[in-house]
């Protein structure tokens, strides 16, 4: 079940500070800590240029255990060579020492400008204070501290039961630009006090990522630092959740909701965005084809600018579907803006219906349905419009 926003999860503590990494002086350093070692799974950037914190964290998470995450914003520590790796390792060592845990149980994560070395003296000064300031209800401060060009902080939560035992999921994310599968310039940390079987934890995260963070696009760019971590510390002391069981299905459903909520927030906060649009492709021969078509439409700059202009220009949509690589028959395609059909069997339905569809585009959120009429599969992507402000924000990003 979906709850009002939950502020914490049993056994997890949080802290955040302004360490001077950002020029603005806003919070930029945060710590997430589990009071006991947690089972952990992760998904990371597919970009071949990989930031130092990802190179440090990915093999640690692969062991299946993690107890804390140190995150900074304002500096990506990417393309910084051997010194960047040494700095990422030193950040982890500083936090591990302050917490009294093994370095191998510490994940490090960074987001911000590429190509600058971390100001290590600021980490040395502030990380011990982070460990001393940990509180159970501090998740919101972490959500704010990891923001870069985000207009608002992003959190989502859910509660579920295993038999008579209640457990909680809490997700924290950042992201607004450089958003595109597979993942984006985004970080996400999902925490639960449930006991979850390790292999199932990894599988549940992979599936949830496919229908959330790997199904969104803002600008077609992917980043060097993308990271999604799922930590389960077992403090709820429920019967272990496993795959292929009703409890496992309920856990996946709750995880999917939390991560999709976060993903939609990222698109809604797309740099300069004014609209959140679901592109739903149905009637495809298989799910892979549905995703190809939905991704191509969602990514098209011409489609996205038409959304900004509130123009039901379906020609751009059908053209993007046509070059997507998905199997299709142009004479069988239907396109609808919500329930307004603008194309039937590949042919426009006329000016009157287009004008009605343009009224749909005035909304902040709406759905475009593309029916290929070839098979049983469907998939959704979530995209934003492309606006003047996107150019302004990114032209001035480093200043």
Q: What percentage of amino acids are in beta strands?
A: 25-35%
Radius of gyration: 22 Å
- What's the rounded overall pLDDT mean? 92
| CATH class bucket of the largest domain | Alpha Beta
Please identify the structural class as seen in this structure: alpha+beta
Total helical segments: 11
Alpha carbon gap, first and last residue = 44 Å
- Low-pLDDT residue spans: 178-184
Largest sheet: 8 strands, mixed
Give a verbal description of the structure.
This protein has helices spanning 52-62, 81-99, 120-132, 139-145, 198-210, 246-268, 287-299, 301-308, 314-323, 351-360, 388-395, and strands spanning 12-17, 29-44, 65-75, 106-113, 154-162, 165-174, 187-192, 216-217, 227-232, 276-284, 334-337, 340-344, 347-348, 365-371, 377-384. The strands form two sheets. Strands 1, 2, 3, 4, 5, 6, 7 and 9 form an eight-stranded mixed sheet that branches. Strands 8-15-10-14-11-12-13 form a seven-stranded mixed sheet, sandwiched between helices. The protein folds into two domains: 12-266, L-amino peptidase D-ALA esterase/amidase (4-Layer Sandwich); 276-395, ArgJ beta chain, C-terminal domain (Ubiquitin-like (UB roll), Roll). Residues 178-184 have low confidence and may be disordered. The longest helix is centred in the middle third of the chain and has 23 residues, at 246-268. With 399 residues, the protein is α+β, with helices and mostly antiparallel strands. The chain is built from eleven helices and 15 strands. It is globular and about 70 Å long.
């Amino acid at each position: 079940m979906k709850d009002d926003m939950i502020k914490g999860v049993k056994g997890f503590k949080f802290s955040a500070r302004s360490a001077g990494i950002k020029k603005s002086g806003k919070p930029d350093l945060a710590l997430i800590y589990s009071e006991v070692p947690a089972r952990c799974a992760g998904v990371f950037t597919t970009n071949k240029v990989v930031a130092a914190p990802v190179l440090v964290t990915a093999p640690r998470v692969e062991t299946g255990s993690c107890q804390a995450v140190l995150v900074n914003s304002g500096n990506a520590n990417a393309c910084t060579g051997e010194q960047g790796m040494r700095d990422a390792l030193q950040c982890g060592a500083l936090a591990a020492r302050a917490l009294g845990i093994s370095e191998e149980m510490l994940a490090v994560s960074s987001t911000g400008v590429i190509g600058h070395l971390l100001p290590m003296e600021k980490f040395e000064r502030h990380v011990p204070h982070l460990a001393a300031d940990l509180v159970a209800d501090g998740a919101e401060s972490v959500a704010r501290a990891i923001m870069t060009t985000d207009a608002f902080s992003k959190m989502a939560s859910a509660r579920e039961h295993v038999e008579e035992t209640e457990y909680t999921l809490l997700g924290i994310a950042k992201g607004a630009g450089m958003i595109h599968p597979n993942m984006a310039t985004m970080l996400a940390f999902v925490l639960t006090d449930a006991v979850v079987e390790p292999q199932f934890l990894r599988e549940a995260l992979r599936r949830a990522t496919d229908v959330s963070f790997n199904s969104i696009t803002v600008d077609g760019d992917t980043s060097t630092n993308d990271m999604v971590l799922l930590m389960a510390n077992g403090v709820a002391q429920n019967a272990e959740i496993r795959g292929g069981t009703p409890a496992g299905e309920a856990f996946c459903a709750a995880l999917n909701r939390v991560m999709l909520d976060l993903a939609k927030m990222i698109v809604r906060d797309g740099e300069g965005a004014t609209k959140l649009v679901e592109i739903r492709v149905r009637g495809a021969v298989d799910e892979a084809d549905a995703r190809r078509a939905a991704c191509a439409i969602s990514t098209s700059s011409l489609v996205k600018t038409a959304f900004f202009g509130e123009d039901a220009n379906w020609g751009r949509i059908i053209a993007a579907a046509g070059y997507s690589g998905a199997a299709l028959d142009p004479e069988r395609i239907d396109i609808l803006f919500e329930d307004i059909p603008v194309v039937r069997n590949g042919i426009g339905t006329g000016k009157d219906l287009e004008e009605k569809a343009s009224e749909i585009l005035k909304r902040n959120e709406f759905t475009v349905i593309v029916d290929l009429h070839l098979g049983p599969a469907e998939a959704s992507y979530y995209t934003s419009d492309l606006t003047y402000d996107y150019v302004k924000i990114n032209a001035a990003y480093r200043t």
